[in-house]
Specification:
This protein is mainly beta and 221 residues long. The chain folds into two domains: 104 residues, Beta Barrel (Thrombin, subunit H), CATH 2.40.10; 111 residues, Thrombin, subunit H. The chain has one helix and 13 strands, in the order H-E-E-E-E-E-E-E-E-E-E-E-E-E. The protein starts with a helix and ends with a strand.
Length: 221
């Protein structure tokens, strides 16, 4: 038996188990820089059960600060970067490594990413810091219907220096995870805005096999 046949049998077995234990999830496939959950991106409904461990014993709940789950489902209908959701939440497929469980990430926020335009002037041109009027859309737009689900949790390192003023709040570091289906490149200095109204400056973005792992720091007024 070759690896491809073994993989197909493995996913078929997962699918049979999910038909008994799983719930219905709507499967979406991103197409462009706007929300992957747009109605036109709906592919199908799939049966899926989620476990915090890869052995599918369903013995332990997930814990604080851990966005990853393992999907018991027929992986033959999935692609890395797909999204799916139901009443349990919204998730994306991070990894589908050969003969291993399907790794998924739980999304906690909806985000939009913008980038400051570079200024071409020289000489005395006045204030040159961050200005919202100079922001260009990178992922999503001002319309909330275009925003992307992402994992945004505490941690990740990186910081923006405290102003040292009375009452000023240190910039908290966070880790943002996005799927490999994101169709743009992200750079340090890009700004992430979430559905809570926070502005997060990208300190260090890293594109991995599992998608984007991004260290950010919250920007305070």
């Amino acid at each position: 038996m070759d690896a491809a046949t073994l993989q197909a049998k493995l996913y078929a077995g997962y699918g049979k188990a999910a038909a008994v234990m799983g719930s219905d999830f709507q499967l979406y496939r991103p197409n462009g820089p706007n929300s992957p959950l747009a109605p036109g991106n709906l592919v199908r409904t799939v049966k899926m059960a989620l476990d915090s461990e890869a052995n599918y014993q369903f013995q332990h709940p997930n814990e604080y600060g851990d966005a990853t789950w393992y999907a018991l489902t027929d992986g033959s209908v999935l692609q890395p970067g797909d999204y799916f959701r139901n009443g349990q939440g919204t998730f994306f497929v991070a990894g589908m490594q050969p003969l291993l469980p399907v790794l998924i990430v739980e999304c906690t926020r909806l985000i939009r990413i913008v980038r400051q335009q570079s200024r071409q002037q020289v000489g005395a041109v006045g204030y040159g810091g961050i200005q919202t009027a100079n922001e260009l859309d990178v992922l999503g737009s001002a319309d909330p219907a275009t925003h992307w689900p992402a994992s945004v949790l505490l941690g990740g390192g990186g910081s923006i220096p405290n102003l040292g003023l009375p009452g000023s709040t240190p910039a908290a570091s966070r880790r943002v995870l996005l799927p490999p289906s994101v169709p743009v490149n992200l750079f340090a200095g890009d700004i992430i805005m979430d559905d809570l109204g926070r502005r997060l400056s990208i300190i260090a973005p890293e594109l991995t096999e599992l998608g984007w792992r991004i260290n950010v720091a919250e920007i305070h007024a």
